[in-house]
Amino acid sequence: MMLNINRKLAELAKDGGSIKVGLVGAGQMGRGLISQIESMKGMRVVATADIAPENAVNAYKKAGVGDTDIYETQDNDKADQAINRGSVVVTKDASLIASLKEVDVIVDATGVPTIGAKMAWDGIMNQKHVVMLNAEADVTVGPLLSKMARAAGLVYTGTAGDEPGCIMELHDFADALGFEIVALGKGKNNQVNYFANPDTAREEALQKGASPKMIASFQDGTKTMVEMTCVANATGFIPDIPGMHGVKSGVRELPDIFRLQEHGGILHQHKIVEYVDGIAPGVFAIITSDKEEVHHEMRYLKMGNGPHYVLYRPYHLCSLETPLSVAKAYLDQEPTIIPYYGSVAETVAVAKKDLLPGDALDCIGGFTAFGRIVTATDKQRMNALPIGLIGPHIRLKRIVKQGDYITYDDVEFMEENIILHLRRMMDAQM
C-alpha cells in the first residue's frame, strides 16, 4: 500500500532534500534500519543514541559510513552543526535526539516501554514525527500519544515491517474493497511457554546473538499478545477468548478454522485477532462476502471454495521496512498503523511464578510476569495491570499465585515514571 514512495524519495533527493531521521536504540533492529536507509534515496539516519555509543558507531561503520563522518557528542549545538556539514552523530544521551533541529522524524527501536513512551512524548513536544518500533509502549500509552500528535499536526505511528503494520496493510486492502473481514492474525514460530524466562531462553539467545530477555518475551507469548493488541486497537477487532486460541495450522486450512463454531470452526464471533502456530513469519486476513458474484470470482481466481478465503503475506522485514513508515509520515503526513479505536484490547500482566509481598516485578521477558491479551472491558473488570507498566519500581502488596492476573490492587508503585504518568493521563480521559 506504500504507493510511489520510491518516486517521491527520488524526487526529494533530486531536489537536494533528505528526510533526517533520529534513531534511539542501536540494537539488532536499529542496526538493520541504519544499513537499509544508507541504501536509500532521500533519507538518512543523521543521529543515533544508544546507552553504549560504540553500538551506534559500529552500526554506522557496517552501513558503510566512514570513520571521519561519525561524530560523537552530547552537545546539542555541536550535533546540529555536525549534521549540517554532512556527518552523522552518535550520542549516549537519548534526550538529545528529540531536541535536534536537524532531525525530522524520530524512530524508537529500543523495545523498552518506558524509553519508548518518553521518546515519543519528547518528539511530539519538539514537533517531530514519531515512528514506533516499540509495540510495548504503543499498547500502553499509544492512544494518548496518537491523540497528542494529531492535535499538534504531527504523525505518531507504528511501523511497516512489524507484524501489526503488515496486518494493517491486509486489513486496509480488504476493507477498501468491501470484503467482510472475519479475522486478522499472525504466525508464531514456536509453541507458547508462558513461564519462559531469561535462564530457560539463554541457549537460544546465544545461538541467535540476541538478548535472553528478548527471546523469553517471544517464547512466553508476550510479544505476540502485544502485537495483536496493536492490531485490535487499530481495527476495533478483539480477542475471541483471553490469550487467543493459538491453534496449529497451515495456511490452506485457515479459512475453515476461522468460522463460527456452529459452522464447524473455532470462533464465537467475527472480527477477532488471533495467532497461529505454524505459518510464521507470515500474517493473514480471513475474508468473506455476501455477494454471490464475488464468491464466483474468488473461486475462479483459485482463492478457495469459500465462503471464507485467506489473504496471506508470507514475510515481514521488521526494521528493514521501517523507512517506508518514516517516508509516509514525512511526505504524506499519514500513519502506517495507529490505535484508531483507542483501547479495545489490553495486554495485561500474569504471574510467571508465585509472587510474595515485597517482591519486585522485573521486566517484559523477565522472571516475574508474562502478557496476555484481553478485551478492554475484561481489563477494567479485573482492574488488571498493563504489561507495559511492569518494572522494579512496582512491588507486590500481597500474594499472587502463578498463572493469576496481577491487578492494580496487588501492587504499589514505589516511584513515578513517564509511562505511568502518561497512562494515568490516558485513563483519566477514558
TrEMBL record:
This is Putative homoserine dehydrogenase. Residues 161-322 form the Oxidoreductase DRL-like catalytic domain. The lineage of its organism: Bacteria, Bacillati, Bacillota, Bacilli, Bacillales. SUPFAM superfamilies: NAD(P)-binding Rossmann-fold domains. It comes from the Bacteria. InterPro entries: DRL_cat (IPR048423), NAD(P)-bd_dom_sf (IPR036291).
